[in-house]
Amino acid sequence: MDDERISVTELTIERLPEVVALCRRGLDLAEDAAEAETIVDTVYRRARVDRPVVGLLAVRGTKPVGVLVCSVAGQPDPPGAAYGCVDLVVVAPEERRRGVGRTLLAYAERWLAERGAREVLLAGNPPYYAWPGIDVRYTPAVCAVLALGYRQDRTAWNMTADLSYDDSPALRSTTEAERRLATVGVTVRRAEPADLPALTAFARDTFGGAWDRELVGSVGRAGAGCHVAWRDGAVVGFAAWGSSRPSWFGPMGTDPAAVGSGIGSVLLRRCLRDQRAAGIARAQIGWVGPVPFYSGSAGARIERVFLLYRKDISPDRTQTGQEPE
Ligand SMILES: CC(C)(COP(=O)(O)OP(=O)(O)OC[C@H]1O[C@@H](n2cnc3c(N)ncnc32)[C@H](O)[C@@H]1OP(=O)(O)O)[C@@H](O)C(=O)NCCC(=O)NCCS
User: Would the CB of 81 count as within 6 Å of ligand 1?
Assistant: First the structure.
């Protein structure tokens, strides 16, 4: 009933099906609504194993009308700074412009401040994230966060690889390229769980520590996968998909010494082929990255664009903006 007051409670695992149903209705972009279950699973259930996460449920009476998930950030940026991220916020379409989003964000800011955060980011918090930031087409969300004192920070984009037709450049055969690589001692195959120590060590040593969990989330998990290139028993490149969402590709990396040898495009297209076999018609190459490489190797196009926001919530902040209620 409409005259019942909104209250906010902490989300529990038992209520996840209601949250998924709410996200299916409330995520205005069809491609996100279709993956609502995985999104909730990634940012709430899986993320909780590794980092402090809270889910907040806004209810009218007992009916869920809004949800927010936020987390303490894993990799301080800049180092030493404590910050938190809002990973998901959705209000039921019929409940918009009644202050539900404002109330949820105020709770989140307080929860994060209590855990030492001095800033809140509306940005992807790898490895468990559903978007790099707010898709520009979620215009109400952009309006809401500006009204609530967030300022725009960075921009990020995805590229789309079209897997919907056989002749797509994203699905070009890799056989000839793999034969060429074999002549210089490089072999490519699907990664197995037993490869994880070598894979994560390669990713950490070559690119820093950020991709371990995404690799763990890709290798040997249903709705995900990873391919790896080897030379002389050592990893020289990898590409993964599905760790956060089944339609999303990444991360990938080639040993800088081997860049330009064609390893990356073979790994990329092997993953895209897997994604097509999993029924995905449009793969999202997330949060790129080298646009000319993805364009050339898979005919991918920039499509989704995301705005990243941040807000100072430190006790000594001078920035003007709406205070939590
Ligand atoms: C973004 C969203 C959560 C906002 O929730 P909400 O409950 O409607 O927001 P509020 O009512 O608390 O709005 C707070 C302020 O934001 C601004 N705002 C919100 N929606 C707006 C809109 N459509 N146009 C202009 N301003 C808007 C207003 O200033 C508003 O205050 P006011 O109503 O007093 O003027 C909701 O629109 C939503 O669920 N969108 C779809 C999911 C989404 O985009 N999530 C973000 C990406 S994960």
Answer: no
Atom 18 of ligand 1, residue of closest alpha carbon: 144
Range of the domain at 221: 165-280
pTM score of the predicted model: 0.91
- Read off the pLDDT of residues 60-86 as tens digits, 9 standing for 90 and up: 999 999 999 999 986 555 555 589 999
Q: 6-9 contacts: CB < 8 A, separation 24 or more?
A: 6/58, 6/59, 6/60, 6/65, 6/98, 6/99, 6/100, 6/103, 7/58, 7/59, 8/56, 8/57, 8/58, 8/59, 8/103, 8/104, 8/107, 9/56, 9/57, 9/59
122 and 31 in a common domain: yes
**How many A from CA of 201 to the centre of ligand 1?**
43
pLDDT lower than 50: segments of the chain: 319-325
